[in-house]
Amino acid sequence: SASDLGGSARIPSHYTGVSGISVTPRRLSAKGIVSSIPNLVGLKGSVGLIADKPETLASVLKLLLENNRQYNYDPLALPIPWNSHLFESSTSLRIGY
């Protein structure tokens, strides 16, 4: 994992042929992560994940988000559960940069 404010997870992933995603700020807990830019006002970084392929990212996110694990660990994390319907649907999933 990496912190991602300006593409710290996504850009290296792009150039090295792996997959990376930056989740919505506070979607995953940042508890225990030290900011690389202390006292930065107005910008919130988020947790970025890097994996060998998109399926691995989905599996990791599912494990982290199911059963409100993030919210139970850190009440500042958003209590939004994993939505498996998005991955079971025949409708194409569109992910933007």
Automatic annotation (TrEMBL):
Record-level Gene Ontology MF annotations: amidase activity; fatty acid amide hydrolase activity
UniProt xrefs under Pfam families: Amidase
Lineage top rank: taxon: Eukaryota
InterPro entries per record: Amidase_dom, Endocannabinoid_amidase
Residue span(s) of domain Amidase: 2-97
GO BP: fatty acid catabolic process
Descriptive protein name: Amidase domain-containing protein
Organism field: Allacma fusca
